[in-house]
Amino acid sequence: MGLGLGVMRTIEFLLLIIAILSAPVLSDLILSKVERRIDLTSQIARIASTIKAENDGSSSVSEILLSIPEVQAKNLAYLTAKLVEGKGKAKTSGVALAVEPANPKGMPPALSFYTMILPKPLANGDSVTLDVLAAFTHSLRPFPEKITQADIQLVVFQDTAHYLSPYPVKVQSLTLKLPDARIESYTKLENTKGLGSEIKYGPYENLPPFSYSPVAIHFEANQAFAVARELVREIEISHWGNVQVTEHYDIVHGGAMSKGEFSRLDYQSKPQIRGASAFKHLVAKLPPRAHSIYYRDAIGNISTSHVRGDSKKTEILIEPRYPLFGGWKTAFTIGYGLPLQDFVFESEGKRFLNFSFGSPMHDLVTDSITLKVWLIDA
User: Fold this and answer.
1) What's 197's DSSP letter?
2) CB neighbourhood size of 338 (10 A)
3) Residues 148-166 pLDDT 10s
4) Are 227 and 252 in contact (CB under 8 A)?
5) Which residues of the chain have pLDDT under 70?
6) What is the set of domains in the chain, with CATH numbers?
7) In 3D, which of 84, 106, 104, 86 has the Cα closest to residue 94?
8) C-alpha R_g of the chain
9) How many CB atoms lie within 10 A of CB 330?
């Protein structure tokens, strides 16, 4: 199944190209080298960029701008930046930089901007290397949008082969890592190479500011597309030495919608063929000393779960009562206890709770989360 022109060139991306052609240029900085790596092995698109920036202006620079197309920025889930220290094999990510939304004058609304604040100004002729990590949800679009129980799931991912930046780029490259070597089609440009489950674009040299070259990749992706439409986390803090956590999940398979009849017999006899696009379990990584773990739904306790742990984590494998195909839903609750001293500490006469905000489920996309904290009297 090929990738049609209508999929490759959506209206949103056409509007983006038109908008960036009229964007003003910021010329104080030059990006001498940019290496981007996009990991598409799960439903979450993770983009890691190593950026070397040089100050070619007459005055010092205290911040560096990142630009993200608005069609992608609306699904931005995570964004961090760190200084790279050392050289060659001794390179390591060091100081974390503050990253804040920005609104530079004269820029088109089709682009969202973020500023990375440097720990000290970058003088004329100096350079700095940064590691930037961004994660995006809902970036893989099922195509076709509906499939049968026997079909594999195919998705489309769109981006740009050129690093979209308000600064000129001397040399840059892009590598995409896919979950499988089965690739239906992908945009072929100059210096494009496909090898197994990887596609490489570049290197490209001497790119002007806001250079943009759209690409689309159509590939097989049967990994779990588990989406929590709503998650309610309740944390009860007791002075008796326990923290009780209760998590209520409303889950949907966010991949290609299932069509036609479902045969449990076919699924049980050939799950890898008659259920390749379904997901059968979720994995939650809980704190290492989690105890009194339970898993239930509206019917009652569910026994199809397995717990294992070590000194660093407690892992629970959760199996719903039935496999989930595209569009299918389920709701359940997990609960567990934690030692109070691991998460509550005292400083200057005040008590503080140190607890992760998001879900402990691996590669779960959470659309809506509510966190409730209850203080239980002794």
Assistant:
1) T
2) 23
3) 998 999 999 999 999 999 9
4) yes
5) 1-27, 87-93, 304, 377-378
6) 5-220 (2.60.40), 226-376 (2.60.40)
7) 84
8) 24
9) 16
